TrEMBL record:
GO terms for molecular function: pyridoxal phosphate binding; transaminase activity. It comes from Rossellomorea aquimaris. Its cofactor is pyridoxal 5'-phosphate. This is Glutamate-1-semialdehyde 2,1-aminomutase. Pfam families: Aminotran_3. It comes from the Bacteria. Belongs to the class-III pyridoxal-phosphate-dependent aminotransferase family. Keywords: Pyridoxal phosphate.
Length: 453
């Protein structure tokens, strides 16, 4: 007997069976799996995705937020094509002009960025930021917040999806590895902080300031749970006082709250910033930006006299190691620059944010009409649908949500042509139309009615 979803997606189901034979679980990232099988896509245009069964969807996944201008935006396409035509190659493997052009753009947009290095993913960007902080301060440990994601590597793949009963006290969370195979070393050298609880965070930091090089954080957890303003202001004050660097992981929030990230909204200058997603215009990319004095510790020509804070004898140190065959890929940077230029045009961000607000309030009205406790939680052009009342300020609060009902609705939405991976957050693009919003609202209404029948 076919699963109800599979009735619409027979070709996806068949392709998945083939994929499973050669790719573990049939997916190239575990998060891309959904039961009974993922939907295999074949085309995209604007706000739409079309699957291998020719079903069309309004896409709210948008490649996990990367596609802020939707699929196949002409300016982004042209920029990539023109760059390849002009250069006569895909990549030089040497420094080139565009690296500086985009770096200058990022410096003009992000208050915390004075210099830039490129990577190939958000994961690599946060990794480089953490290593930079450790080398600069000479301290051995990092701190991260419970529930925050910074990429799937050993040092930070801890306490991302805490199981409440095994994650310790709310004010002093345990370190919970998210995967088998993470060496115990990282559990011992990572400090977990409670998000949006400044008093508990301050206590932990004051006790352990001597060993913590940096705090890495998502200013908006998961792209949708914002740090309280007062929390953020105090955290910046405390970290400055204690000599702990503050790293903003703006892989999700960069370009999505303001073009210059969450730091513009909070008026906070982090010491280091990690970027990714939107920055590549749909191609793989990452970047680290930060204060000149810190960033220059990776300069092979010395940049400045390289003295880490830990090097008391004033001896010269080797530069921080940073490498990558594809770093600063010209085709990628051209696409990213074109994306940023479109976002900077008057009215683009304003319309994107207004449309997101419209969709959110429309959704809230519909659930209210159906008497389902619901709120949208988010900031800028990303939000999530939480089927619960009461404030949602950290990951533990998410346990209040009725994820069973939400998941049922999400599956109905897929059949009605709305693409959200079940339980995933919504990302909006600048090319979602008012008609898309209307259709999305209508689909939610229908999905709830179908479930209640
Ligand atoms: N940090 C954050 C906040 C992210 O959302 C992600 C990706 N979801 C990453 C880091 C890792 O980026 P990537 O998947 O490009 O490696």
């Amino acid at each position: 007997k076919l699963n109800p979803l599979s009735r619409h997606t027979k070709n996806s189901a068949a392709l998945f069976e083939k994929a499973k034979k050669v790719i573990p679980g049939g997916v190239t990232a575990n998060i891309k799996y959904m039961a009974p099988h993922p939907i295999m896509m074949e085309k995209g245009h604007g706000s739409r995705l079309i699957d291998v069964d020719a079903n069309e969807y309004i896409d709210y996944l948008l490649c996990y937020g990367a596609l802020i201008l939707g699929h196949g935006h002409s300016r982004v396409y042209e920029a990539a094509m023109n760059q390849m035509k002009k250069a006569g190659t895909t990549i030089f493997g040497t420094p080139h002009r565009l690296e500086t052009v985009l770096a200058e753009k990022l410096i003009s947009l992000f208050p915390g960025i004075e210099m830039v290095r490129y990577t190939n993913s958000g994961l690599e960007a946060t990794l480089l930021a953490i290593r930079t902080a450790a080398a600069y301060t000479g301290k051995p440990k990092i701190a991260k917040f419970e529930g925050h994601y910074h990429g799937g590597y050993d040092q930070v793949l801890l306490s991302v999806n805490p199981e409440i009963d095994m994650a310790g006290d709310e004010t002093e969370p345990d370190v919970v590895p998210e995967s088998p195979g993470i060496p115990d070393y990282y559990r011992k050298n990572t400090v977990i902080l409670p998000f949006n609880d400044i008093d508990a965070t301050e206590t932990i930091l004051r006790n352990r300031a001597h060993e913590i090089s940096a705090i890495i954080m998502e200013p908006v957890q998961g792209g949708f749970i914002p740090a309280d303003e007062i929390f953020m202001t105090k955290l910046r004050e405390i970290t400055e006082e204690l000599g702990i660097l503050l790293i903003f992981d703006e892989v999700k929030t960069g370009f999505r709250l303001t073009v210059g990230g969450a730091q513009n909204l909070y008026h906070i200058k982090p010491d280091l910033t990690a970027l990714g997603k939107v920055l590549g215009g749909g191609f793989p990319v990452g970047a680290v930006g930060g204060k000149k004095e810190i960033m220059e510790i990776s300069a092979p020509d010395g940049g400045r006299d390289i003295l880490t804070a830990g090097a008391e004898n004033g001896s010269k140190k080797d530069p921080l190691f940073h490498s990558g065959t594809y770093n600063g890929h010209p085709t990628v940077l051209a696409s990213g620059l074109a994306t940023i230029e479109v976002l900077e045009e008057e009215g683009t961000m304003e319309a994107l944010l207004a449309d997101t607000a419209l969709l959110r309030s429309g959704l809230e009205d519909i659930y209210k009409c159906h008497d389902i406790p619901m709120q949208t939680v988010g900031k800028g052009s990303i939000f999530n649908i939480i089927l619960a009342e009461g404030s949602i300020r950290n990951y533990r609060d998410m346990a209040k949500a009725n994820s069973t009902l939400r998941s049922k609705i999400d599956y109905e939405l897929l059949k009605l042509g709305i693409y959200t991976k079940p339980l995933n957050r919504y990302s909006m693009s600048a090319v979602h139309s008012r008609e898309d919003i209307e259709r999305t609202l209508d689909a939610h209404d229908k999905a709830i009615k179908i479930i209640r029948k």
